[in-house]
Structures are given as structure tokens and as C-alpha cells.
Amino acid sequence: MLNTHEMNLDNSGTNEGIMVGTNSGTINYLVKEPVKISSMISSVVKILSSTCIEDEDSDVSLDIDTFRPDKKIEHNCVIKYKEIVQEHAIYYTHSDDILNVFDDSNIGSKGKILRCVRNWYLESKGQLLLECQRNHDSEIDTIRRNADFLIESVILKIKQSIFDSNDVSEISMEEIEIGITCFVCYCFMKCKILEKPT
Length: 198
Prior knowledge:
Blueprint: H1 37-51, H2 69-76, H3 82-88, H4 92-105, H5 109-131, H6 139-145, H7 147-164, H8 173-189
């Protein structure tokens, strides 16, 4: 039989979310402030700016075409990333604002980053078309069958570029993943990834 007189529970004092039965030392508990989506995107932009190489011969004008996500998803037959794009499309303005602010202090960085992402997409697309040339499908049909693969290949290029840099220590991997997702959705809507609806 359990003797309830010998059990003493004490939860007096200030509780910061940690409970300890018996403690014979000091407990150091640091609460990390939550990072906002904007700062996650900003970290991705900052790192990409330092890793993307400036192409001096390229046109500095930016493609200003932006399409509603649903229209572009349907045109390219995106399946795996459909809901991700739809959910993160709300961060389009945040991403654009961050790129513009960053470009104000680092002239030409917005164009450089977007050209870099576009080139990663075009490399993946070219490799895919080369591998599928015997299928005798049209270019758009090949892209539509492989739209999710193409998005994923750009995501992997962005991740590789970021993780190869030395600037990732200030933000967690989870936060970088969210920043990349928001940024990729922005690039998708800016038509730097996949094809423009006709």
C-alpha cells in the first residue's frame, strides 16, 4: 500500500517551463526568440547574394511577369509542390520587399539572385530535355511530366549553395528550410522556375 504521507510535491516559486525532481546543480535555460518568416527569407537572400556570381554581360532588367499561383500550377502540371506553392504564395510580397531592400544596399543583387535561380532552372530543364529527347514529346509535355522534379532540383541547388556558404550559423536548419520554401515560391511566381502560362 502506498504511503501518501511520505510523498511531498512542491512546485513553489517561479516556473519558467522546466520542472525538475531533484536538482543538485544549476540549470541554464535559454529561450530562443521565435524568428519571423521575413527574417528567414532575408537570411536566404543574404546568403544567396554572396554565393551567386555576377554575370557582367547579362541584361540587368528584371522580368516583371508575375502569375497567379493556380494558373501557373495548372499550366505546368505541378502536383507534389502544388499545395506548398499555394500556402506560401502569401509571402510573395515579403520576399519581393526583402529583395528590394537588400538591393538598395547591395545594388544589382536582386537581379543577380533571380538570374542565378533562373540559370539553375534552365540547367535542370536542359539536362531533362537531353535525357528525354528520344521520347519525341514536345518540350512543354516533358516539362509538365517532370515539373515537380524541376522545382526540386532548384530547391536542391539553393540548399547546396546556402549550406556550402559559411553564413548559416546564425539561423537554424528548420528556419532556413522555411525561408527557402518561401523564396522558391516567390521565384515560381516570378517565372524564374518553370514555364510562363500562355
